[in-house]
Automatic annotation (TrEMBL), chain A:
The chain crosses the membrane at residues 50-75, 95-122, 143-161, 173-192. It holds the Pfam family PqiA. Keywords: Membrane, Transmembrane, Transmembrane helix. InterPro entries: PqiA-like. The lineage of its organism: Bacteria, Pseudomonadati, Pseudomonadota, Gammaproteobacteria, Oceanospirillales. This is Paraquat-inducible protein A.
UniProtKB/TrEMBL annotation, chain B:
GO terms for cellular component: plasma membrane. PANTHER family: INTERMEMBRANE TRANSPORT PROTEIN PQIA, INTERMEMBRANE TRANSPORT PROTEIN PQIB-RELATED. The chain crosses the membrane at residues 55-79, 99-132, 153-173, 179-198. It comes from the Bacteria. Keywords: Cell inner membrane, Cell membrane, Membrane, Transmembrane, Transmembrane helix. This is Paraquat-inducible membrane protein A. The keyword Phosphoprotein does not apply. It holds the Pfam family PqiA. Its main location: membrane. It comes from Amphritea balenae. It is found in: Cell inner membrane.
Length: 212, 224
């Protein structure tokens, strides 16, 4: 082990095993021989894909939040609901903490993740300044797992089933946009390759330093 | 899939290296407490105070688990009538209306998963804290499972939010949230924090220490 230079060594982030770095083909995962954690892999056109996905995601974010998800019809009365309503009505009912959490997990964090990825992919693809690249990467990495739109969608489905005997429900445009947005966010999570992106950021920083 | 070859299992820490937690760059162990030159975070060989923070979140979650399940989470009123219901009450109502599948989904997300998560974290933390002998790979799989599934417990919170927003028809029908839901949300968040604070590498450190101790004793036996 000691015969190798530092550049050829890596460590497993889950079990801290020291390993020699090996060459891998695109689409081939390198996994830890001890704990089977995925160490690194190669994504083809990762930055371009992230750019496309985050841009499409941001566009879909608008109808998903502005159009009604569900409309309830009882005795000629209509009650529509967008994502923000779920937080606001709990806030009105005095459940401030839950209102805040729903607001964060279903609106703010997904939005921040989309913006962070758009910033990262734009800076790397077009070679822009990228002064906040590190911060954007850290935010995206730490917010992973806290964006819960897919759980919100399951919540909508549970609510539909709970209410279907009591009242007439109509599914709105917002729900379809939300479903599409969730697919994009999931694809973003798969395409986001931290190991490779950090190397590209390192490269980007060294290049921009050269021009300074 | 490619598995790199290793000559014997040795951790980065034993060999004098540490791994950056955010960008996975390998540094010399002497860099502990300094900032990573690639991504700028503070470098630590292991998450500082991992066990303490993880225990603290877990114990608080356990304490709040009772109010979360005993206090009502929401009240459904039609024409001014209706009782507040707890998590379990809501599941029983679904069963009464012959919605077995959806009742199972809610039961899994709201009761089974948080309970399993609390038990699993207790086992993981005790193994490391008291240096118990254990199957290391199994423990790693256990951790990955709870880390992945834990967030789905937020389901009930979202359902309450959606129902409260939707069913606001004055006297005809009206749903409001109750404070049991706050306790439940805090339980879910705290178990997530507990899992984040837990450093999986501690499981393996503990395992290596155990294996070395075993080797030492067998050597002593031979000498005797």
């Amino acid at each position: 082990m000691t015969a190798h230079t530092e550049d050829q060594l890596i460590a497993c982030h889950e079990c801290d095993l020291l390993i020699e770095e090996v060459e891998n083909q695109p689409g081939q995962d390198v996994i830890c021989p001890r704990c089977n954690a995925r160490l690194y892999y190669t994504t083809i056109n990762g930055i371009e894909r992230l750019l496309a996905l985050s841009l499409a995601g941001l566009i879909l974010f608008i109808p998903a939040n502005l159009f009604p998800i569900l409309t309830l019809k009882v005795f000629g009365q209509n009650q529509s609901q967008i994502i923000l309503n779920s937080a606001m009505s709990l806030f009105d009912g005095g459940l401030f903490l839950i209102a805040l959490l729903i607001m964060l997990f279903a609106i703010v964090i997904p939005l921040l993740q989309l913006l962070a990825l758009l910033y990262i992919s734009c800076s790397l693809h077009f070679g822009w300044g990228g002064r906040l690249l590190r911060q954007a990467m850290h935010s995206y990495q730490h917010l992973r797992g806290w964006g819960m739109l897919e759980i919100f969608l399951l919540g909508v489905l549970v609510s539909i089933i709970k209410l279907k005997d009591i009242a007439q429900l109509e599914i709105g445009l917002g729900l379809y946009s939300l479903a599409a947005l969730i697919i994009l966010i999931t694809l973003m999570g798969i395409t986001f390759n931290p190991h490779q992106l950090w190397q590209q950021i390192d490269h980007h920083r060294q290049q921009s330093k050269r021009y300074d | 899939m490619t598995k790199p070859l290793t000559s014997g299992y040795q951790s980065a820490r034993q060999s004098g290296y540490l791994l950056c937690s955010d960008c996975n760059k390998l540094h010399k162990l002497a860099m502990e407490g300094h900032h990573c030159d690639r991504c700028g975070v503070k470098l630590h060989s292991r998450i500082p105070n991992s066990l303490n923070h993880s225990w603290a979140c877990l114990i608080t979650a356990v304490m709040l688990f009772l109010p979360a399940n005993l206090l009502p989470i929401m009240t459904f009123k039609t024409f001014g009538q209706g009782e507040p219901s707890t998590i379990l009450g809501g599941i029983l109502q679904l069963l009464e209306r012959d919605m077995l599948f959806i009742a199972l989904v809610v039961l899994t997300a709201s009761i089974v998963v948080p309970l399993l998560k609390i038990i699993a974290l207790t086992i993981l933390l005790s193994t490391v804290q008291f240096g118990l002998e254990t199957n290391l790979r199994q423990k790693t799989i256990m951790f990955r499972a709870i880390e992945w599934i834990g967030r789905w417990s937020m389901l009930d919170i979202f359902v309450i939010g959606i129902l409260v927003a939707l069913v606001q028809l004055g006297n005809i029908a009206h749903i409001e949230g109750n404070h049991g839901a706050t306790a439940f949300a805090i339980v879910v968040i705290l178990t997530m924090f507990s899992a984040i604070a837990f450093d999986t590498r501690l499981i393996w450190d503990n395992g290596i220490a155990k294996a070395e101790a075993a080797k030492q004793t067998s050597r002593n036996h031979k000498e005797d």
